[in-house]
């Protein structure tokens, strides 16, 4: 296990990020990694405050979007780190969503054989999921997240105030992972999500804390995915294949939403899930405005190719993390990992 690190969820915390980061050492250089959008929205304020606190800030901007979660973007970042004079005492600070976090963390993991980084998540998805647990990495043309490293951040500061500028489609995408965490281990999250977006107004800090807490429980028990952590992949075996087959036109959370419904139908057919569970999950996702059906027009062979490279496979067999019911508070037993299903059966369910 890496060094323990703090995650703080607090509205307005980005305003005092410099104070928190200074706990990790002073007068250091930070490579502040943002994408086009977070650079325009949040980088100036943060740079000013970090500079006032004695940090030397080198801003490194990457293009926004999953299509840029690549080795090329990582190589561009490494070049910016060198030009910016980053050394082994420097700190990479990822200011953005899951894409910025995954690429920055991976760049930090390999730069000079590994330097510290912190995560300042600005999307709901990154606050409740991507910023936690140290999975970093990039996509290859062959599939999602195929290259990466476990490299936990030194600190995570999540500021729900940043959600005020987040486009609604991105907010919905993050809610899919909240629903996933609800199924894994917190019925209160599912009840809140069943109220729809209007019912969540004014409750974002509560929601982020509660959803993040489920992931924290899982990764504390199994940081390097030796077993239990695979439950966090519920919806992802199919979700990742759909993302790739859509050339990343489907957002990660949207693909996971569809993946959770289809994978729960498979669980019902296998007798793992009680009948009606897929309908219950589908109703909550629909209420949140998330897609629940595989879009027409995706190429079956592309989906097959995406499934075939899933990282949970063993000896050529696809393994799924499937729910039996919805989680009980304090219990992480509702999703069963390692369920083997033949690819033709899966494609039949996905493509009809
Ligand atoms: N490492 C992990 O454990 C983990 C977990 C879940 C997901 N992921 C990965 O995370 C990625 C998805 O993350 P995401 O949904 O945050 O996507 P993203 O990083 O692409 O962000 C979505 C969009 O929102 C913009 N944005 C970010 N913050 C904003 C703000 N506050 N206001 C306005 N716009 C803002 C971004 O520029 C981008 O256009 C996927 O690559 C997925 O594989 C990783
Ligand atoms: O942290 C995990 O473990 C997860 O599975 C969380 C997922 O939501 C996330 O999308 C993750 O990036 C998937 O990891 P992968 O190992 O399937 O690439
Ligand atoms: Zn995910």
UniProtKB/TrEMBL annotation:
Pathway assigned in UniProt: Metabolic intermediate biosynthesis; chorismate biosynthesis; chorismate from D-erythrose 4-phosphate and phosphoenolpyruvate: step 2/7
Domain 3-dehydroquinate synthase N-terminal: 60-172
EC numbers on record: 4.2.3.4
Protein name: 3-dehydroquinate synthase
Entry keyword set: Amino-acid biosynthesis, Aromatic amino acid biosynthesis, Cobalt, Cytoplasm, Lyase, Metal-binding, NAD, Nucleotide-binding, Zinc
The 3-dehydroquinate synthase C-terminal domain, residue ranges: 174-312
Species for this entry: Bellilinea caldifistulae
GO terms, molecular function: 3-dehydroquinate synthase activity; metal ion binding; nucleotide binding
Binding site for Zn(2+): 177, 236, 252
Catalytic activity: 7-phospho-2-dehydro-3-deoxy-D-arabino-heptonate = 3-dehydroquinate + phosphate
Gene: aroB
